[in-house]
Amino acid sequence: MLVPLSENRPISSAEDVVAVRQAVRQRAVDLGFNLVDQTKIVTAASELARNTLQYGGGGTLRIEEVIEGTRRGLRLVFEDNGPGIPNIELAMKDGYTTGNGLGLGLSGAKRLSNQFEIQSRPGEGTRVAIVRWR
Amino acid sequence: MERIPILKMGEYLLVTIQVDMHDRLAMSLQDDLTSRIVSARAKGVLIDISALEMVDSFIGRMFGDIAAMSRVLDAETVVVGMQPAVAITLVELGLSLPGVRTALNIERGMDLLRGLTAARGRDDAGSA
Known about the structure:
heterodimer; A: alpha+beta; Heat Shock Protein 90; 5-stranded antiparallel beta sheet; 36% helix; B: alpha/beta; Transcription Regulator spoIIAA; 5-stranded mixed beta sheet; 4 helices; 5 strands; 17% strand; globular
């Protein structure tokens, strides 16, 4: 996968989550995503950025334009150095939450993406990467 | 501090969300609306989200909470103007806004509110 463009964004406040949504929207527009696809990746980004802030204690987002063969897309990589997720399978379940949300963040973001990867170790943090193709 | 304005129109409250809300702003809207329903003796709340380009699980939950709180306070809430792309995404996210009444636009939302509050009035008269 080629990565012609990449930018980093901090996620350390509620305002940063809004800035992330706007930055992802702009990249999706630049890449020629249609309105529904823009909305899907922005919404997935919002869920994952909130997770990074709330559960990871803050972190970063890397926004990448990616090319694979003839298709182009957006890859978003969220990383934190928080407490990590002890049971990923459980955390991916609809409705499961250790906070006070609806428990749709991870599972919902996965449904809104074409590719979804999560790595996490207790005490070492969490990394979630999603791709949405145009 | 930044606030979403709440307008009073007769016995209804009207909120038009025109900014990309961060979570604290959404929470303060929920608190402000709950207080205003009581202080204005409002019978209904109309929330216009036609300018919102995204509704995630946090904002979706806020609509559900506002609807539930207003019902407990003897008022009805209608959310109007959701963009089609937002609706498609919300359902795929896994959220169907149970308990939240919706209408296509402000006009239909006002009609719905009038109908709902009139029905409430009749129920009250019937049970008295």
